[in-house]
């Protein structure tokens, strides 16, 4: 998979200064969208339960209905939470007009709405994986309305 923003991020403009990830994101947003939408662990868990993740609102509703068997494995929960948040963000970016990926200074991806509001989708994904609240589809509905 060719993701030019990663190449730019890794290379420095000169020997003394590295290129910030956020700058690379601005340079090649298409590759960032592709990378953040992978969510491999979440997609595998969903597929095992017969749920297809097609980047739709319906798939968020289907995820909310899954039995949270991952909570039995404390090593899986943080990774799955991260994937759930990135998947929520992917659905938002692909379906809500004006929603885009943005990087906070610490490198955490968030979704910025046309209004300027930023949604910490990764944080929401961790909460969903840990306790099931907020439901991904409910958060999507709240965000899509604003």
What does this entry show, briefly?
Helix content is 54%, strand content 10%. It has helices spanning 4-10, 21-27, 29-36, 40-48, 57-64, 77-95, 121-131, 136-145, and strands spanning 12-14, 17-18, 100-103, 109-112, 118-119.
Overview of the structural elements:
- By secondary structure, the chain is mostly helical.
- Helix content is 54%, strand content 10%.
- The protein contains eight helices and five strands; from the N terminus they run H-E-E-H-H-H-H-H-E-E-E-H-H.
- It has helices at residues 4-10, 21-27, 29-36, 40-48, 57-64, 77-95, 121-131, 136-145; strands spanning 12-14, 17-18, 100-103, 109-112, 118-119.
- Strands 3-4-5 form a three-stranded antiparallel sheet. The protein has a two-stranded antiparallel ribbon with strand order 1-2.
- Strand 3 (100-103) and strand 4 form a beta hairpin.
- Helix 1 (4-10) runs antiparallel to helix 2, helix 5 packs antiparallel against helix 8 and helix 6 packs parallel to helix 8.
- The longest helix is centred in the middle third of the chain and has 19 residues, at 77-95.
- It is globular.
